[in-house]
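Researcher: Please translate sequence to structure tokens.
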Amino acid sequence: MTEKVPILIVDDLPQNILALEAVIADMGFDIITAKSGNDALRQSLKHDFALILLDVQMPGMNGFEVARLIRSNPKTSHFPVIFVTAGMKELLDQIEGYETGAVDYLIKPFEPVILRSKVRVFQELYQQRKVIEAFYSHLEQVVDERTAELKEANETISRLAATDELTNLSNRRSFNDCLAAALSAARRHEYPLSLIMIDLDHFKVVNDTFGHSEGDKVLKLFADLLREMIRTEDVAARWGGEEFIIILPHTACEAAAALAERIRVAFGQHSNPEQHYKCIIATPISLSASFGVVQLQEGEDLDALIKRADGALYCAKDSGRNQVVIG
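Model: Translation complete:
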């Protein structure tokens, strides 16, 4: 069913309102009436009118004043106004009517055919406007949906570009960006920052003995362990192969070494067949890792810090593996 088009008839005389209603009653309008200028202004704020048929000669506030106020309000300024009156026969009155924003006028007594013809034009314009508004509303919705999808896709792409595919930890490129930012913040705010570099001991033996799929399970297990044991503000990454690295802001070397020891112990416990790791991998494996721990020194850059961490890790491996060495 076609929605009725709202139209406002304003006249202080009830018989004039009835006469206008009778002429357009069968045209599919939702007819709203007002008997004064103030009433007309109130109705104009409640409805989106296709047209206002407005009498000029009304007590209190005449039609010209009503038209000016409707035109001056951004919410109602688009309402077309046709004056229907016996008092606009003089040219100056007609000019004043147009200056108030009226689009047309009808002199009483009017021909019903002419009135119907005029209001039909604005009825059709209103319906066309509603179609256009609905189209643009739908278009905006589609654009918003596509924008949200694109934003989500970009976020996914960015996340994937910064994430190691196997372990879901940060990858090396992303880690370097995080480390550069962390170093800058540590220098600016003068707080300690430590780095832990880790290597899984004898990992080549795991791959060679049990296959790469089992080795991947070990890498995932260790990554999950890191996620469980580090803080929200820390950043863990897969540095490459079986090597991992952790940034620890607001952390001195001793606290970083203590964390490294807890991780080492927890990882070694997975060698016990009673631990849940046996359910993940078919064959129990002796698991251990070596750790190099360093704290940022004054004037030290990113490359130098990583080099010292790598040196501490080398010492841990060279000294028998499965231990934490502070560099």
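Researcher: Any highlights?
Model: The first strand starts at residue 5 and ends at 10.
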